[in-house]
Amino acid sequence: MVWVPPGPPRTDCLTLLRTPTDNPPPKMSLEWLVAWSWSLDGLRDCIATGIQSVRDCDTTAVVTVACLLVLFVWYCYHVGREQPRPYVSVNSLMQGADANGLQNGYVYCQSPECVRCAHNEGLNQKLYHNLQEYAKRYSWSGMGRIHKGIREQGRYLNSRPSIQKPEVFFLPDLPTTPYFARDAQKHDVELLERNFQTILCEFETLYKAFSNCSLPQGWKMNSTPSGEWVTFYLVNQGVCVPRNCRKCPRTYRLLGSLRTCIGNNVFGNACISVLSPGTVITEHYGPTNIRIRCHLGLKTPSGCELVVGGEPQCWAEGRCLLFDDSFLHTAFHEGSAEDGPRVVFMVDLWHPNVAAAERQALDFIFAPGR
């Protein structure tokens, strides 16, 4: 048993309220107790209401969650719908319908807004808008050189020396040289050269059609001051030509194995180029310096020459020749009719000094049809 010392008699709240004759407690204490009781009642009611809403699956809560889900799905669709286009498989080309805008197997630009073909004052504003849209979706990180190039594009194109003047877009601070060593894109060069016989075999099958008509379907005649220059495009300005790819399935499949092939923007091309004897291609500039043009020699008779930036080079069968076509360049075939045509497989590769982040941004900015 524990002994508790006696204390003053206990007085509860009910006694205080019912006995006016006793000494009343301070007024502030009574008001505080009543307010505290009301606060507890309100908190209890709030918790009970919340629990009941969850149990009853309140309509307002369901509608709110549904709206949030719809907004999330819309955002994902909006962000993802204009991603750079992936390479199309050969199987899908075999099964799919022909692309729109094809005439004689060649893709002609149908849009006046095409940045590859538009030479107007609004081009720089369009490019800057595309860059801002890309940075908003992804990041400005690594975009300094592209931003600088677009901001001062007019000055770069107008002040370039006559030996190198890309017609559409100049990326500053890239090493410039008319020709590149094979090691610049070693993997792709070696892969193309290992498949030389495959590409040559498909070309010879195509070329047999020339005996039946002047210009078979799928070939494009290019303007030259003399002779004939025809091309057979598998990829033209970043767009696949399905009918032509079906005729060269192994060559097209090979493009998907190249690590640096430009396949998702308007500066990317892949084609077979044929010069007949007596042909001279007028000196001209390419559209940009962000790419290296690769020529794999398929048939290279004597008397054929490529001149880039005033420096002549000759093709060799089964070997790749890399050059920057933003330099002033020309090609000619001075051989005889008995020598036959000069034939190369041409594919555009990324300049080795364009970083991965810049490549992704340029694919977005110069996407076909953008």
Automatic annotation (TrEMBL):
High-level lineage: Eukaryota, Metazoa, Chordata, Craniata, Vertebrata
Protein name per its UniProtKB record: LOW QUALITY PROTEIN: aspartate beta-hydroxylase domain-containing protein 2
Record keywords: Dioxygenase, Oxidoreductase
Superkingdom, natural source: Eukaryota
Coiled-coil portions: none
Organism: Acinonyx jubatus
Gene3D superfamilies the record matches: B-lactam Antibiotic, Isopenicillin N Synthase, Chain
KW Oxidoreductase (keyword) present: yes
Residue span(s) of domain Aspartyl/asparaginy/proline hydroxylase: 193-352
UniProt record similarity statement: Belongs to the aspartyl/asparaginyl beta-hydroxylase family.
